[in-house]
Batch of 2 targets.
Target 1
Amino acid sequence: MEIYLDCNATTPVLPQARQAALAAMADDFGNPSSVHSTGLRARSLIDDVRARARRVLGVPGGRLLFTSGATEGIQTAVLSALVGLRDRRARGESVASLLLYGATDHKAVPESLRHWKALLELGMDVQAIPVGHDGRHDLAWLRERAPRAGLVCTMAANNETGVVSDLDGLAGVLAGSPALWLVDGVQALGKLALRLAERRIDYAPFSGHKLYAPKGIGLLYVREGAPFTPLMAGGGQEGAQRSGTENMTGVAALGAVLAALEDGGTFGDAATLAGFRDRLAQALLEAFPTLVFNAPPALCLPTTLNFSVPGLPSKLLLDLFDAADVRVSGGSACSASKAQPSYVLQAMGLPAWQTASAVRLSFGPAADEAFITAACERIRACGRSLRESCLQPSAPGSLPPEGLTRFIVDGACCYLLADAASRRCIVVDPLRELTERLAALLRCQGYTLAAVLDTHRHGDHASPAAELRAALPDLGDDTGPLDALGWPQDVRELRLGDRVLTRLPIPGHTADSTAYLLHDANGLRLAFVGDTVMPGALGRSDFDESEPLVFGASLLKLAQVVGPTTLLLPSHDDGDRFASTLATERRAQPLLARLLGGGLDAPAFAAAKAEREGGVEPGDCATPAGGARVAPHVDDDCKVLTPAQLLALVERQPELLLVDVREAYEQRLGHAPDLVAPRARHQAIPLSQLLLALPDWLALPTTTPVVFYCRSGNRSAQAANALRRLGHEQAWSLAGGLALWRPQGGDAPAPLRDPDVPAFA
Ligand code: PLP
């Protein structure tokens, strides 16, 4: 069962609202402007719902319009206020110069202010009212500017944090000001009494879909006497205040929600909801003991919790919750590789780690006891899964990392090579951002740190190797003195179970650049090559530490030792290509191809490379790969399969391999997906552990399809692209991931079940 905890984004539709909407389509489908009986019935419905809305909002006077939602309500209010100010100015009255909005307001507010100000050519200044650490408006700042403000926009309650504004304080500050006042009431409806008339609020937009009505219906209240200009002109509906045939299904559904609010039986009261929130908060603290709340719960809506967990980015938590079928949302929108911090939390002055790792959990006032109990249990299960993966330091884990794990921070790569049997590990190219997490992971698993190695002295950051060793004092190795890159002096090879690491100096990018070669029972398995060869680029050689004249010789030596097909693991991978080979890079990089083909001597290679690097500032990290020029990659478009196509492909090619690339903590929580097909083979290889599996997939017959899947299709697309770039053409990603996997419905055929195929772990 899905536990939906994202009600500040949107809510499901209340059953009685669904019924009302269906009735409005089936029976009362008339146009309220028609004068025949069918039309009159529709008119009566709309009048009843408006009257109900007036009672619920406590606004017997003023305008109350049906809109398509809050964004439209905000446009109408802003347009009305600005036209009013322009008219006052045209009449020669003195007009204030400021348009103010809360720094944590929904984007619809500042964007509307800027949009309409520009269209109306009003030379007014748009400014954000700062908020304090608690998310509430800085009233002293506002008091100073209120006399010069033409319009002040604030929200009743914030959608990300749930922080409730001090509306009485704001009303007091604005008491003597000429400013019009807009209060965005979206998140307050059904949860807080706004006392719109009493507080002399001029405009208040609301949205149906935030309170169990469907999308596409909203309300706008306008105080009697406040300026008003219709946003839409036409047939004169809504008393010519908002033309366009009314959305009668939306109105009917909203009417059912308002009736539920009036009846008092459907929605919990404030005390009940606060009790639910406290239980969820407790479950969260048990699941993630180091969690911090990003806004003081006492100042927030009783239905919203916003929190961050140190060391756990919001993307990781969202994947974890989603795997447990718990829907929450990130306080921040995450792009493919970098998290966009939440502007709301930034405005509150929270530290960067908190703004970049925030998660919002919000339920609706129709939540009941059983739902909250199930939600708490599911949250605790998420915590257990993380602890078992040792991502939370509080308990010993049962799943030791084995093999090779890749960590990536803003394109920089760090590798953990671990041997579960001996509990020894080696870290290659450590990153400061990961020190704490790695130390916790290794401590939790009782691992001994056999070595922390750098492939070179990094130009863009100092190595945190010493910090990592110091963070694990009881696990430190006793191999004696280390060289500058962390290799134990007088040691030829580092052994880790049946794997062996040797080194190969490859000066060029820097004088000390070194490759670490990993061998196993089958011979050379892969090489950590630092910045010397990256996917699509060669490391720069115009740094002070570089030795450009020997770069070419180093590449030739590398080619001789590793050959064309050994996997090369870089220390930068901005394009999510994971690994490369010299054969792949020869195809992508003409300069490298000429060198390896014998067409360039060392000075000619150095000159050609210097020419290519000219004009790129050293350390210019706006360009990826530590400032190197990256060759454009022509076939980055991922090949995707819809569920129906996947099932058809399995029928045609039963040797097909299905790979779940979700992380272990998700796989453990996730329901075994219905991706079961006769004879199709399955593997669970988390994206972070992809590297050691790549050579095996590359060794498959070229016609064998390898189909990756994950939660949403992003990570599986990365895996498929990486494999395809390395030469396996039949690499695919399941479009939309498990989120869109509906083999029972839609156009996808029913799944083909095979009782002999074991369930996923
Ligand atoms: N204001 C707030 C506080 C909101 O949370 C939202 C929705 O996210 C909006 C305005 C926009 O509402 P609608 O989706 O109805 O346009």
Target 2
Amino acid sequence: MSKYESINPYTNELIKSYDNATDAEIENALTAGHKLYLTWRKQQPKDRSKILSAIADNFKKNREAMAKMMTDEMGKLYSESLEEVDLCVNICQYYADHGPQMLEPTTLKTDLGNAYYLKQATGIIMACEPWNFPLYQVIRVFAPNFIVGNPIILKHAHNVPGSAELTEKIIRQAGAPEASLTNLFLSYDQIDQVISDMRVQGVALTGSERGGASVAQAAGKNIKKSTMELGGNDPFIILDDADTHTLRKVLSDARTYNCGQVCTSSKRIIVVESRYQEVLHELQNVFANLKPGNPMDKNTTLAPMNSQKAADKLQAQVEKGLENGSKMFYQFPEIKSNGAFFRPVILTDISHDNPIYNEELFGPVAEVYKVKDEQAAIELANDSSFGLGSSIITSDIKRGQELAAQIETGMTVINGRWITAPELPFGGVKKSGYGRELSELGLMAFVNEHLVIDVSQN
Ligand code: NAP
């Protein structure tokens, strides 16, 4: 693990360093979190609705400050940071409006008596989150658990400590009780220590396979429920009947939004041969028209990567792909800057034995595959250790729906790139993890479905 530091990837200059949490801070967070859980158990979800609405309002009020902090720390375009804050406002409001009703007891049909199950809080949840959407990843866990009544201990990524602190501050300022969300700058050993504590009842991690495997192991060892939202190598399938206008619109940012650092970004572009050349040239057109620059500037369309280390890692993966037979169809020209910029690349001819075939390339690299028909497209799509998102571009919606059911991923978008909204479940299968965030499914992730049955009449 690296130190907790904010480094502006546009300048590669250090903004601020942060100290790791002390043992006393960890103990205080656990004590306060557990006390809050016990208090919340005596209340109803609707009692917390108003505060969650106030939190949504406070993020609205602090929209620009929150967005600027995220752009300063991980380099994303300011316009995308603003969109991220707006999405989080909607997530908080969604659970404030719908959470209490979703948490009503469910009646069960049985001949054995009067039966129902309650949906109860379980205790403190530890959230380990990545830097790519510094606010959204946290709110996906925080908002539903706030309504359920589970306090959160947040361990954010080492490169977005300022965003972590500001998120905690905005939540507290809105009137949330102490310990609703406690940010701690934890080392990996301290994460294990927190997970093993009796007062912690669940672990949510969003991140890579590396982080997921380690934290899931700690959760398993301590019999704690966990959700894992991990990486993806998402197939983006273009069928022969794809509408040209739709295709152009979808390709315009499918691989470049957030500088390609989206778990569900369209990483493997799988094209039936009749449309292959057209897609390559369309992608080249999109990439060649990008404008690198200051992510705070509204004319910039190509942001730096989140860190120099990430840009170097991606470069090494591209070189490994080329050394193993892949071809470079296009590369963006040199970018003169001290920032962590990466020159977008289009790769073709990636064979099954190329080591990058089954890796996640987390940045603006389009891997384009040519296939003979839709059956071959499905086989290629499923030939991956990952199974997060997918897209199908076709004019025949019924055909798209039939194909969607054959793809081994947690999500499929027909005629669009990846998508997220409070009411839609988010998550994957295979090495993309398990469990779901958002929607009613996400709300239930750390709920105790407590059966109550009255058998006195039987
Ligand atoms: P990461 O290295 O796994 O980090 C995620 C979080 O886990 C960070 O807080 C990190 O802390 C912590 N962590 C990492 N290794 C750990 C370990 N061995 N023990 C304990 N904690 C550990 O992931 P990332 O590179 O920051 O994020 C990018 C990845 O996230 C990509 O693979 C992307 O696809 C995935 N992602 C998935 C989703 C989804 O919903 N499925 C959404 C967004 C991103 P440090 O920063 O201190 O190392």
